[in-house]
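yo

u said u wanted the structure for the complex thing, so here. seqs first:
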Amino acid sequence: MHHRPFSVTTLGTGAALPARGRYPTAQVVNVHDGLYLVDCGEGTQERLRVAGINFQRINHIFISHLHGDHYLGLMGLISSMHLMGRQSPLHIHGPADLKAIIDIQLRASGTWLRFQMHFHATDPISGTVVLDEPGLTVSLLALRHRLPCTGFLFREKPALRGLRQDRVHEIPQFKRQAVKEGEDLILPNGTHVPNADLTVDPLPARAYAYCSDTAYEPALVPFLSKVDLLYHEATFTEALAARAKETLHSTAAQAARIAASAEVSRLLLGHFSSRYKHADVLLTEALAVFPRSLLSFEGGVFEVGG
Amino acid sequence: MHHRPFSVTTLGTGAALPARGRYPTAQVVNVHDGLYLVDCGEGTQERLRVAGINFQRINHIFISHLHGDHYLGLMGLISSMHLMGRQSPLHIHGPADLKAIIDIQLRASGTWLRFQMHFHATDPISGTVVLDEPGLTVSLLALRHRLPCTGFLFREKPALRGLRQDRVHEIPQFKRQAVKEGEDLILPNGTHVPNADLTVDPLPARAYAYCSDTAYEPALVPFLSKVDLLYHEATFTEALAARAKETLHSTAAQAARIAASAEVSRLLLGHFSSRYKHADVLLTEALAVFPRSLLSFEGGVFEVGG
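structre next:
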């Protein structure tokens, strides 16, 4: 069992037009108690409050693209972070134009942020690493949409090997880090102890992939291979496949086909068109293709792996 | 009794920092069933839905100033108007910089609006007429705040005189409009009938003034004289008068002093700082100065005159 948290909270499941109690897209990814915000539709700061998430703990915000339902809550969130006395730096990753949109609004409101805001422009090239932290990398996924659009792949770094409890007393303190990293142990008397006798395999590294908004895009499959949780947009049913194609969105069946091809553990559906009163119809369609499909919902928390 | 509607729906009563179930500032003014939106904080489109107001009926939006809690819901509202097939023109009145903020975001999202959007830049000069419709004028109020900021004065045009039901048969059809407009009647036989014998006074024209955000500003008083309803911000209590002065906001007592000096019929308070769990403390303070004070609340509807 994994003890270090890795989960996704879905704050909104709606598409471009808010309706039916659905909010626009925003997610909080918790990796080892670090909080990462992915997309930030209008009202996200309120949804964070409702979910009981302290937004001052968020240090990185990732914006997929510049359709309003994915970023219009960002200025309000930045403003509230500022007014509530934030001092720690904030990193925003998104399309280059987003910086101009933020800057013009800070200027117009006469706001001088009390914290440092670092903007990192994203180019939609799959595999580009945009964040490299001690336990985590975040890399980009090139989605296919009407605007430049990136998904985000959160991948734990491989953990160190575990020391066997029954052998740990044999390993001198100063050698333990090296053994965890896979080295064999040479005792003072020259005895060679193979690493495999002293350690157990680490827990497998987990991964979460976020793909919204995108047309059906098989080129993503190698990058999504065997992730523990894949969030994939499912705006329409197959009955509206033509509309999906025209607007560069996906059907639930297409999302499920991507999940099946990539052999992911679980598929999480979202970005439901307001025409569907109940998202159940989208789930049914996905389940027929990929049985480990599930629906996101407002405030839902989904474990990654484990 | 007035039969033509004139009312204000307050969608949000919070100040810069949303909290305590309060939403940022937005109001819908209904004048003779025409709907006018005043300010548009984040989430306004959702609040309109909750209030059961069809936002496609709004043709004019007035933005007081460019602090986020007064305009950050505008892009989402414009986007939803567009996605829901709006075709009728939309007029936006606000500080000049707002146009650039809208344009950069429409461009970044690749949105080509299906309806005409007309932008009218406001200069904070009290008395400037920004809208002149058959039954209504809207003019500006120069507020005193950290940014250029305008209030809005909605004033009914004087109605025509009413024809006395017991005399109306004496007035030839083609003369009735002239009599309503105040002319005397000359009968075919030369008899002169004074207008006063044929008509009754029209209902008095009503007025609503919106003042947010502003420091205590006695220069407003002549422009607010005897309005039926004055909305005035009341961000703080007198205990925080220094903070009010520093941030160019008003205390509840200051709002009430303005109301008393202008001899308005009723004072409506709003824009409550998040530090006040209950706005009651602000009402108590205002009532001590001006007895016809009341609190706005989320979704509250307030009649203008009548």
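Residues 80 and 289 of chain B are 43 Å apart (CA to CA). The mean pLDDT of chain B is 96.
cya
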